[in-house]
From TrEMBL:
Keywords: Hydrolase. It comes from the Bacteria. The keyword Cell division does not apply. GO terms for molecular function: hydrolase activity. InterPro entries: Isochorismatase-like_dom, Isochorismatase-like_hydrls, Isochorismatase-like_sf. Residues 11-183 form the Isochorismatase-like domain. This is Cysteine hydrolase. CDD domains: nicotinamidase_related. It comes from Siculibacillus lacustris. Gene3D superfamilies: Isochorismatase-like.
Length: 210
């Protein structure tokens, strides 16, 4: 990694850290919830200490929905996030934190260049937000241990939580984001070093050599 001339103007985007992911309707499996929620807390604390704005995103569903129902315990922010300082709170109804919200305008008004994404789930709202951000011209970072997935099975097939989480991170690193552990990101805030980024071409060549 190489040190830049000036640190990018970052914001930490904390996506959907709600109680339904903590043993509720959509329990996170990999990494274990206890590990990822601790990493999210560390990232929020480090961002606050470094003067990086923290934006908390909350998924809202109708009161009759099986998950994230408005006013339900499952739809409430997890205490690790709810009890920490934040600069902005956004409610959303679709996977991307940008769709139907003021997130883009809030970031532009503060000249934010890079967003760092944590929260849930790696393969759904995180991935949607990351891709959306890239298309808008933001640089993106994803903290790999401050996110998480669960297993899926449907008519298209099945995949374990580990497979979904790992593959999504590999895909994001190849084009959409710099993927790194939380502690490395925190160290970079102090040193000014930026995380390495890969390309589709480089990732494909390395994959072909396996």
């Amino acid at each position: 990694m190489t040190a830049p001339n000036a640190a990018p103007r970052r914001a930490l985007i904390v996506v959907d850290v709600q109680n339904d992911y903590d043993g509720g309707g959509l329990p996170i499996v990999h990494p274990p919830f206890a590990e990822s929620i601790a990493a999210i807390g560390r990232a929020m604390d480090a961002a606050t200490a470094a003067g990086i704005p923290v934006v908390v995103i909350r998924q809202n569903a109708p009161e009759t929905a099986p998950i994230f129902a408005r006013g339900s315990h499952g739809g409430t922010l997890h205490p690790v996030v709810a009890n920490r300082p934040r600069d902005h709170l956004i409610d959303k109804a679709l996977p991307s934190a940008f769709t139907g919200t003021d997130l883009e305008s809030w970031l532009r008004a503060r000249a934010i260049e890079t967003i760092t994404v944590v929260g849930y789930m790696t393969h759904n709202c995180d991935l949607s937000t990351v891709i959306h951000a890239l298309h808008m011209g933001f640089a993106v970072e994803v903290l790999s241990d401050a996110t998480g997935s669960l297993a899926y099975a449907n008519r298209a097939g099945r995949a374990t939580a580990e497979e979904i989480h790992r593959v999504c991170l590999v895909v994001m690193q190849a084009r959409f984001a710099a993927v790194l552990p939380t502690d490395e990101w925190i160290a970079g805030l102090a040193s000014g070093e930026l995380p390495p980024r890969d390309t589709i071409f480089g990732s494909a060549r390395a994959g072909a050599a396996l």
